[in-house]
């Protein structure tokens, strides 16, 4: 494509609602446009960048033995009620009803969705271990969206879920993903640290966070 045909609406001045450098650069370079508070459109250059990052993630996940699927962003309420997280997740969850008054949510994460899929499909321990992932849009009704696309109401997430036969094989799968994440962050040439994380509403007995170091943000690590 000729550059003269490229849709790249740049801006001369910093938008008034852009507070941090990355947000200003993305807007001025014609990569994103704000649709609503915490909701953005990715323009051609921005979306091309996203796809390049996704390809690195896919490559390392595939090398680690994970298999990609794609689940709907709309999730039925009953699977969340069964896990006890329909109310626990709180006001960040976007909830809606269809014309038959059946309750759904726009998925903020997908533990329930993946677990429901696998429990209805896997019939034998011989089908395990299993590692599935997706790159899907997630929705969280942030009380105060900020930092541009870093804290938005709609965002793209790569989430992976493993299913194992014992705690020991689970630990092996966990470290396999740990190693894959290190390779992803290294290939993206990010300055990062790996720290113990808060399990929060996601649950579990332990977690790690891969944190890209930046002068902007609200997190403090030790």
Give structural notes.
This protein is an alpha+beta fold and 222 residues long. Helices cover 31% and strands 23% of the residues. The chain contains six helices and ten strands; from the N terminus they run αββαββααββαββαββ. It has helices at residues 21-28, 44-63, 77-83, 85-88, 111-119, 167-187; strands at residues 32-36, 39-42, 67-68, 74-76, 94-97, 103-106, 130-139, 154-163, 192-196, 208-212. Strands 3-7-8 form a three-stranded mixed sheet, sandwiched between helices. Helix 2 (44-63) crosses helix 6 (167-187). The longest helix has 21 residues, at 167-187. The radius of gyration is 19 Å and the shape is globular. The termini are far apart. The relative contact order is 0.14. The model has no long low-confidence stretch (mean pLDDT 93).
Offer a concise description of the structure.
By secondary structure, the protein is α+β, with helices and mostly antiparallel strands.
Strand content: 15-25%
Report the uncertain regions.
none
Distance between the termini: 48 Å
pLDDT average, as an integer? Answer: 93
The neighbouring-strand order within the major sheet is: 3-7-8
Structure annotation, total helices: 6
SS content category: alpha+beta
Q: Describe the largest sheet.
A: 3 strands, mixed
Would you report the number of β strands? Answer: 10
